[in-house]
């Protein structure tokens, strides 16, 4: 390859990376490949920038909001200070924090949906819906791995297709959680915006059912978090790819043959 053609290739690759069509990749060092289960050499491994900064910020903001919403929600449902004279003040604080964090939660959901269409290849909507043939082919291997029928996880860079579908269902649950939360808050002011935005749900179900759904999704979310952490640690242990640390750093350590040549 001549100097001019190399320069042209580099310029095209840089432009594509800025457009989000190519994931930045750099060679791995000996220290970064030391944990690989098959002891790959640095020449056989590359670091791939999978998760962008906004995606990581949205992820951890969502984690924090779920923790706060769960703690305050449990308190609102069963106030620990119910026999104390401070119960009304404590409940007011808990409810105020719960409502504010709920709006943060909704903002994170909106932001993540935006990045489904504007983020890099691993943040895009087709990572959640397996519309491509190669993603469909990995659905069964993903299921077999989670059922302990296969020892190795499917060879993917971002989310495997089964995990992507699970996150899509989770987003649907979160959207319903937001609607039921707004509807419950809107009961206090039936001529306000919240009632206008969410009061329609009472045309289909009663207040008791709305409250039940709101609480049920909280417990389902807790169950998902347990499984999510377990799965991430499991895959990280199996692949030594930085599955867990990548949501902090953005980088994964992957075998070179898993990364297409045009990204390198």
Description:
The structure is a single chain. With 264 residues, this protein is mainly alpha-helical. The chain has a single domain, classed as Fumarate Reductase Cytochrome B subunit (Up-down Bundle). The protein is built from ten helices and three strands, in the order H-E-H-E-H-H-H-H-H-H-H-H-E. It has helices at 3-18, 30-33, 53-77, 87-118, 133-137, 139-146, 161-186, 193-198, 207-239, 246-249, and strands at residues 25-27, 45-49, 251-255. Strands 1-2-3 form a three-stranded antiparallel sheet. Helix 3 (53-77) runs antiparallel to helix 4 (87-118). It is elongated. It starts with a helix and ends in a 9-residue tail after the last strand. Residues 1-23 and 32-40 have low confidence and may be disordered.
How would you classify the helix and strand content by structural class? Answer: mainly alpha
Helix percentage range: 55-70%
Based on the structure given, which CATH architecture is correct? Up-down Bundle
CATH class membership: Mainly Alpha
What value does the Rg take, in angstroms?
A: 23 Å
